[in-house]
Amino acid sequence: MLDNEEFVLENYPRELTQNPLKKIWMPHRNGHIAQRRVCMTNCPTLIVTVGLPARGKTYISKKLTRYLNWIGVPTKEFNVGQYRRECLKIYKSFEFFRPDNEEGLKIRRQCATSALNDVRQYLSVEGGQVAVFDATNTTRERRGTIVKFAEQNGFRVFFVESVCEDPDVIAQNIVQVKLGNPDYIHCNSEEAIEDFMKRIKCYESSYQPLDEVLDRDLSYIKIMDVGRRYLVNRVVDHIQSRIVYYLMNIHITPRSIYLCRHGESDLNIKGRIGGDSGLSARGKEFAKGLRKFLEDQNIKDLKVWTSQMKRTIQTAECLGVPYEQWKALNEIDAGVCEEMMYEEIQEHYPLEFALRDQDKYRYRYPKGESYEDLVQRLEPVIMELERQENVLVICHQAVMRCLLAYFLDKTAHELPYLKCSLHTVLKLTPVAYGCKVESFYLGVDAVNTHRDRPENVNVQRSTDDALQTVPAHF
Amino acid sequence: MSETQRTLTQNPLEKTWVPWMKSRLSQRRGSSVPQFTNSPTMIVMVGLPARGKTYISKKLTRYLNWIGVTTKVFNVGQYRRDATRSYNSFEFFRPDNAEAMKIRKACALTALKDVWDYFTREEGQVVVFDATNTTAERREVILNFAKENGYKVFFVESICDDPEIIAENIKQVKLSSPDYMNCDKEEAVADFLKRIDCYKLTYVPLDDNKDRNLSYIKIFNVGSRYLVNRVQDHIQSRIVYYLMNIHVTPRSIYLCRHGESELNLLGRIGGDSGLSARGAQFASALGAYMREQSIRDLKVWTSHMKRTIQTAEALGVQYEQWKALNEIDAGVCEEMTYEEIQKSHPEEFALRDQNKYRYRYPKGESYEDLVQRLEPVIMELERQENVLVICHQAVMRCLLAYFLDKSADELPYLKCPLHTVLKLTPVAYGCKVESVFLNIEAVNTHRERPENVDVDRDPAEALETVPDHI
């Protein structure tokens, strides 16, 4: 007998109906259909950072959390330092962290426990799949406590240790993220640095790095010297494998990512979605403007990527530099609605039009795609963007929204409504724990293609209600 | 830089937009994913005998070729067998056997020369240099060779001290090696162990300190641990990811198509129809067959299309739906019969016959696109153990081509009939295939390449190989 046989055969085959929103075929009854989601772990996963202060643990935690949420794995980070700040209210000095400070140790242990309780709440009750436990976790004893906690609750543990002895990197860390930290709000730079260095010293004496022999049964990745070297031990499942792959592809070399859409197209002017039309006259103007803009930016070794649709390629052609075409950057496939105006969609498919407004992220066009599908399609692009340095991505409205949501940590809810206007370049520069965004409108007019969510998303709404937010066009 | 924009034309086969310049059309091959390989890359294996180097070499080569990176293995042992008359004994490998050392070094150099040929004349992108390469000196020779020619080098070292794994290796692939053709099992094993000892004397593993500027991955005990140093580029990153996902645990992968569908009966391609009566019968038969097979922890995967899901429903077990397993998108030709395609798009129909692998349907996909789409499925199949994949004709051809190392030319013509399950079991360096027809009749949906693929052929010639339908 098949091991995973849970259902009585007499009930089979069950009738299938197609979910009207996502266009997924599901059995009539309530049976649970596992739709291929990224992480097929049944156990929730607890990622535990390990490392001295200023080794990039919080940077990694936040970035990893952002990535996992973007690909659809509900993830949350728990920063124990944050708990400590809430508990203590005021940070006096590094003395709090001295290994002989009993009072301090007690508080710190309490904070860790409190954080773990919240982890349990998130993973077991709130439906989270991954929790990132961001703390130094530098002693074997502390890690042992966490492993025990995970065992008791049926969580898998994966350690991420960051080891770095390069004084330049550490100094840069301190400048970028510690000086602006609430702990040092009332200090000047020099005092802050001095105190922080002493803080690190407090941890050094009791630091027990993950050991090849003693910890051989644990699952972990040791990141050495900001990614020059990795030690990976006992990856047990899909999500851990994806996490390792991601961590091995990110870097911290300063660079900028430029995102923009193709120049205005002939179909844009007519208010039609999708298709594969060429640039309008104004679109060509934009392309020329883009070339000038890039020249002024004076970017080192810029890579240019386009989709395989005519309008992005025409835009890139104007730049006079080599570019790479990615099919994955193609605009969302609107299926039966391709090349229609919103008015026509309302006329021929009013139900579809309403469903889309109800849940724009998950809505899949008949014989087409959803934003959710787009994100999956774009994952390899994001992975390669992480590997690269200076890149210009010339893409499309829905695609650009997905990419932007990744960099700016926007939710699935916000994503489909992000404003990505024609003829505007967004320059994203990683800074501290996030991304600085600069918006450059290149001064060439274009139609507005942004349709906001109307007030009435009811299937029975009037045509006027449905078309209330459609932008003007010819 | 010229002021005039180059005009774009759409390549009629792959439907990619390319600037209209005489020589440039060949450069951008129009695949759906940029290749990201500028310099040729040499993957250099390192390790004692029976550590899985050849297994890894062949598997990696198969994977890279499948995703479109032209790769070739150069096995120095093969060169040695060609150079020496016959294999006598382990004595050949003794480090004090000067005569043999000369031959072995010459073989390595000959192999390197062939590597150069492959990169230069055959435009290969990746070479896997499969040999023990256990001394720093030998690796230095390779590094210098690569440096002189502008090749990148990535080492893959396999370290294993588990005697059971080594014994299993020897049993699986050494006993049947040409070297031991005329020996009995015990003699072969004894000799091979002595051979390993010869290498142990001079083995210097990649050193964390001395070799810190090299790019490499060290695999410990068949994957329980990895050390990765200085990954330089995209292809090396992909290689590391692949190597970290493969395993050697015995298991089987079952591939089949959905049961016969309504559109199949009508000779129509694509669409999202349900099962025919015979298709439903197949689904039950499939359930019975899988139960008979008595498989431990079987995972079942389907596409998002009704016909595969209906098939899985009949099994009475949990299954996962993958959008990536959906049938190839025939774009404007969806739900047409071949006769209708010939009538409305005769040129497209001919182009497809000219190059079925690269041909992209208008507003649809090509087999080449399919492979890119299926890569995450293959990666997850490598991670998993026993899996049944219920999919579609073109999809199944792509997956099968990966497991059986079929070329892009052969892939679109692989036979994947309805109602037939293929059971793939990894064995030695390849895959054993068992084909099981579940005895429920179904239409044939396999269309062979016709003789005349010319754009101005007669309709009759075009439709010559179309299988029967209602």
Automatic annotation (TrEMBL), chain A:
One of its GO terms (biological process) is fructose metabolic process. InterPro entries: 6Pfruct_kin, 6Phosfructo_kin, His_Pase_superF_clade-1, His_PPase_superfam, P-loop_NTPase, PG/BPGM_mutase_AS. The active site is at H262, E331. One of its GO terms (molecular function) is ATP binding. PROSITE patterns: PG_MUTASE. Residues 40-254 form the 6-phosphofructo-2-kinase domain. SMART domains: PGAM. Keywords: ATP-binding, Hydrolase, Kinase, Multifunctional enzyme, Nucleotide-binding, Phosphoprotein, Transferase. Gene3D superfamilies: P-loop containing nucleotide triphosphate hydrolases, Phosphoglycerate mutase-like. It comes from the Eukaryota. The keyword Iron does not apply. GO terms for cellular component: cytosol. Substrate binds at R261, H262, G263, E264, S265, D266, L267, N268, R311. The keyword Amino-acid biosynthesis does not apply. In the C-terminal section; belongs to the phosphoglycerate mutase family. PANTHER family: 6-PHOSPHOFRUCTO-2-KINASE/FRUCTOSE-2,6-BISPHOSPHATASE, 6-PHOSPHOFRUCTO-2-KINASE_FRUCTOSE-2,6-BISPHOSPHATASE 4. This is 6-phosphofructo-2-kinase/fructose-2, 6-bisphosphatase 4b isoform X1. The lineage of its organism: Eukaryota, Metazoa, Chordata, Craniata, Vertebrata.
TrEMBL record, chain B:
It holds the Pfam family His_Phos_1. Residues 29-250 form the 6-phosphofructo-2-kinase domain. CDD domains: HP_PGM_like. One of its GO terms (molecular function) is fructose-2,6-bisphosphate 2-phosphatase activity. GO terms for cellular component: 6-phosphofructo-2-kinase/fructose-2,6-biphosphatase complex. Substrate binds at R257, H258, G259, E260, S261, E262, L263, N264, R307. GO terms for biological process: fructose 2,6-bisphosphate metabolic process; fructose metabolic process. The active site is at H258, E327. Keywords: ATP-binding, Hydrolase, Kinase, Multifunctional enzyme, Nucleotide-binding, Phosphoprotein, Transferase. InterPro entries: 6Pfruct_kin (IPR003094), 6Phosfructo_kin (IPR013079), His_Pase_superF_clade-1 (IPR013078), His_PPase_superfam (IPR029033), P-loop_NTPase (IPR027417), PG/BPGM_mutase_AS (IPR001345). In the C-terminal section; belongs to the phosphoglycerate mutase family. Homodimer. This is 6-phosphofructo-2-kinase/fructose-2, 6-bisphosphatase isoform X3. It comes from Parambassis ranga.
